[in-house]
Design a protein that fits this description.
This protein has 327 residues and is α/β, with parallel strands linked by helices. It has two domains: 199 residues, Rossmann fold, CATH 3.40.50; 101 residues, Alpha-Beta Complex (UDP-galactose 4-epimerase, domain 1), CATH 3.90.25. Helices cover 39% and strands 18% of the residues. The mean pLDDT is 95.
Amino acid sequence: MSTILVSGGAGYIGSHTVKRLHSQGFIPVVLDNLSTGHRDFLRWGSFVHGEVGSADTLDAVFSARKIDAVIHFASSICVGESAADPLAYYANNVANTITLLQAMRRNAVPLFVFSSSCAVYGPPFDGLLREDHPVGPISPYARTKYMVELILQDCARAYGLKYACMRYFNAAGADPDGEIGERHLPETHLIPLVLQVALGQRPQIELLGDDYPTPDGTCIRDYIHVQDLAEAHVLALRYLEAGGRSGAVNLGNGTGYSVREVLDAAAAVTGRAIPFSVTARRPGDSPRLVGDASKARDILGWQPEYPSIREILATAWQWHKFDYGPA
């Protein structure tokens, strides 16, 4: 059984991936500083409380266990925050990743699965975005993701590192078993915010612009269930273990839903009204971001189990109704 270091494994996507690794016979070791992760999500494998940017911590983890691969989730993810404090994002998302890669090289760990983002793509955004679409990150957050992708390419050429960059679209939903789910403090993602309105925890949702060139004027996004994302990371790990080629793959459903369509679906799933108001556009938002994930299907054998927005919302609704935060 392979032992996998999961940085940021107490967070949203990381914890779902740790659960999936455990169920598939891997031995997960979570490294997390709990700055945005949650201790009550640490239910599988072992846990090391520490910084991914600490060379001493990393060497201690690698020397104490035979680590076979790393799945790297530990990063800062808020676009607006990255614009306000870009140096913090470059320090955490790029410099700390370099420290992790250096520790992997010192300890002869050959495989790396990276949590990247569709935010690396640039315009035009019409149609389905493929992996060969032009890159053009427009925020410091997106640039940090693409910088790491370039670093990985260089490490592959120089050191023989095998890697997979998982460019996913909008992660959503919750563990179908109800054990873990989406919890950000503060919350910035659309679906949890909409469900907080349904639960009466906030009075309404704010639509950030309704004058985009889309059928209903609101932005269109590709939502992918977190369970499907977790499965894709495990499949990517198996693919690299079997000698697969390094590179980037999109993870999405290939179906876009507008903000208004998400609100309508949430009202149908919850049986509750979702009041909203319209505010100004958020700088940098694209009218449409929808991915072509045929490469992931072809080379990883990946097939989303929860492709519809109502299925995604239903699992999120079950989680949010009973999540009162950590004890």
